[in-house]
Amino acid sequence: VVGAGLxxxxxxxxxVYSGDRIVKIEAILSGTLSYIFNQFKGVQHFYEIVxxxxxxxxxxxxxxxxxxxxxxxxxxxxLARDAGLEMELDExxxxxxxxxxxxxxxSVDMFxxxxxxxxxxxxxxxxxxxxxxxxxxxxxVLEGGKxxxxxxxxGPSHPFYNLSGSDNxxxxxxxxxxxxxxxxxxxxxxxxxxxxxxxxADVIRIGKNE
Length: 210
Hints:
single chain; six-stranded mixed beta sheet; 6 strands
C-alpha cells in the first residue's frame, strides 16, 4: 500500500483528473528507510540504527529486504503509472544504499559484520551532510518521464528535512503547485491501524464505483 492510510493516490488522481500537470513528485515511501535515516545523525552509527530498527520490528527479518529499496521502487512505479506514464520496474534507476559486500553476505549475521566494516563509508556520508547543515534522506523522484531513487542530503528549506520517526511524505510539484510551494502530504506510513484504514477506504471506494 502506497503511504499506508495517507491520501497519496487519491490526491494524485484528483490532480490528474482535474487537468493539472504533474511536473515532479518527490517521495519517501518506506517507513523503514525513513526511520533509519531520520535516526542517522549525531554519534549514532549506521549499523546500530539498522539493528535497532530490526529489534523494533520496523524491518523484515533480513533488513536487506528493506535496504534494497525494492518495495520503495514498486511504490514509485504505482505513482508513475497513476501520473500517466507507461513504465516498468526495470526502468527505475536505483542508487544502492548498501555496499556490495553487505548485500551479498551469506547470512543476516554476516550482513551485520559487513555493515559494521562499512561504517566509515556511512560516517563519511553523514559528515558531509552535517558539514552543510543538511540531513540524509533516501528519496524517490519522478521528473521528466523518469523515476530514480537516490540518497541525498537536504537542507532546512526542503520539506523532507524535518521528517521524523517512520513517517512517509510526498511533495507534488505541478502547474498549480509550483516548486516553491509544492503540495505536501505527510504522516504515518507504517503500522497496522493506518494500513488497515487505508485498505478499508479503498474497499469502500471500489464498492461505490460498482
